[in-house]
Every structure is written in C-alpha cells, then in structure tokens.
Design goal:
The protein is an alpha/beta fold. It has a single domain, classed as 3-Layer(aba) Sandwich (Rossmann fold). It contains seven helices and 13 strands. Strands 3, 4, 5, 6, 7, 8, 9, 10 and 11 form a nine-stranded mixed sheet that branches. Strands 1-2 form a two-stranded antiparallel sheet. β1 (about 15-20) and β2 (about 25-30) form a beta hairpin. The chain starts with 12 loop residues before the first strand and ends with a helix.
Length: about 250
C-alpha cells in the first residue's frame, strides 16, 4: 500500500486489497468483515451497462465497489444502517477514487421511501442478514449481529424495499443462505418478484449448497427461470478454477 493511503486507516482497521478489481476495502479488525458470499454476489450480478444500482445493507461497501469497477457507466448507491460501516465505506470510496460514482448513505432498507424516489433504480442488490432471531445464537458483537442476523431487518424487508425502488421488469439480485431457499422463493413471489436466474453455491462438489444467488424481475410473468450449473468454491484445499476466474484469487 502506498504511504499516502495509511492516513485513511485507523489503528483498529485493515485495508484489504482485491487485485482483480484493483480496490482497497477498509474493514474493522474485529466485528463484521466481508466474506466470499459478497464477492460472489457482486461477480454474478448481471447489470446493464448503464443505469443506477442500489446496494441494500452495503456493509463496508465491497459489493458496491466491485459493481462500480465491473460496470464503469453505472452509478451506485450504498445504503448502510451502521454508522461505523458506512464511514468505512465512504472512506474506501475516496481511497479508490470512486466517490463520484459510489454514493454512501446511512440508513435502513426499511426506510427507503424517505431516501429515494419510487422506481429510481434499474437494479437492486443485497446480501441481507441470513439468520432469523430464533435461529441459533446471536453474536454478542453488535456490528456482526446486525449484519448477520435479522436484528434490524429481514430479507422480506429487502424485497419490499426493492419493489418500491424498481420499475416493472427491474431486477433484484440477492445472495442468501441455501437452507432458506424455499422461504426466499416464497417471499419473492409474495412480493411480486419472479425468479429468473438461480445459482446454487457449494463449498465443495460433494457438499450441500451453502448459498443461493437469485435474480428476480418485478411484476414479471412466471416461467423461464434459468437454473445455472452450481458454483463450487473449493477443490483439493484451494479455490476452484471457476472461482479464481470469478473473483480473481
């Protein structure tokens, strides 16, 4: 890292470099840190070459930054509730010279009607909290708890927000835990979104799916859902060739 970048990093933070996209991401040494599911979602998102994208629950902003790098003509809004994560995302945007195209806002995806005009985005992406409050132990770390459990909002809230933010046939991309896939598909249909593309993500070839990435269209007709071949993350103790191509590790 260049010496000039160090002034943006606090003692309790790291700046992690993602070589494929030439971006630095500021994260706390403790608390919530992005994982491979965010990289997968940002890499699989099928976004048109122009338009506006909103990242609901943006965390440190890694999905927003990758999308901005993948699609140079797209404007991205990163919406994050937790002030410390929003601050890191904003500093990372400046660090990567992306402040003109990645706009970080502090707020909840449950309050989008007070933040954005209706139908003002062409694509909504989200890596929402995976775990309901009655599932397992909630992390004692507040930052991790809000990011990983439905403490401040659920995937249903994301779907409701996306319906407001997108025009008819606009696209919602969600990565979610695979074990809750039936619930996700139910909530999408209930929220008037039709799944059109599905990718299951497996840690290894012989293991159950860990994640599912789903792209859905608002107010679209049922049918013509493409279920793509599964994405396998690891083989022989390392990333698979497909993963290396996808996320550049």
């Amino acid at each position: 890292m260049e010496k000039g970048l160090l002034k943006n990093i606090l003692p309790d933070e790291t700046a992690d470099y993602l070589r494929k996209w030439d971006i630095w991401v500021i994260q706390g040494k403790r608390g919530y840190r992005f994982a491979v599911d965010s990289l997968i979602a940002a890499s699989l998102a099928n976004i048109t070459s122009k338009g506006k994208v909103v990242d609901l629950g943006a965390g440190c902003g890694v999905i927003s930054f990758i999308i901005a790098k993948r699609f140079p003509n797209v404007e991205v809004y990163a919406l994050e509730l937790q002030p410390q994560l929003a601050d890191r995302a904003e500093r990372s945007a400046r660090l990567n010279n992306l402040s003109n195209r990645v706009h970080v806002l502090r707020g909840s995806f449950k309050d989008v009607k007070g933040l954005f005009p209706a139908e003002s985005f062409s694509y909504v992406i989200s890596n929402p909290p995976f775990w309901p409050l009655d599932k397992g132990r909630i992390s004692p770390d507040r930052e991790r708890a809000v990011a990983m459990s439905e403490v401040e909002g659920s995937v249903g809230d994301v779907i409701e927000a996306a319906y407001y933010l997108l025009p008819t046939k606009g696209t919602l991309g969600i990565i979610f835990c695979a074990e809750r896939a039936p619930e996700l598909f139910y909530l999408l249909r209930k929220g008037r979104f039709e799944p059109k593309r599905v990718v299951f993500v497996h840690p290894r070839l012989d293991e159950d799916a860990q994640f599912v990435f789903v792209e859905s269209k608002k107010n679209a007709r049922p049918g013509q859902c493409r279920v793509e071949p599964p994405l396998i993350i690891y083989s022989d103790g390392d990333y698979t060739e497909e993963m290396r191509r996808l996320i550049g590790v």
